Amino acid sequence: MLIAKLALRLRQFYFSRVAKYTKADEGFARSYLNIEEWALFSQLPEFEKKHCVVVGRRMLWEAGQHPDLDERKLVRLGLLHDIGKIFEHNSIYTKAFMVLLRFFVPRLYDYLAKLGENHRFLRRFFIHKHHGREGAKLLERMGESSEVVAMVAKHDPHYNPWGLDDPLELKLLQEADSAY
Question: pTM for the complete prediction?
Answer without folding.
Answer: 0.90
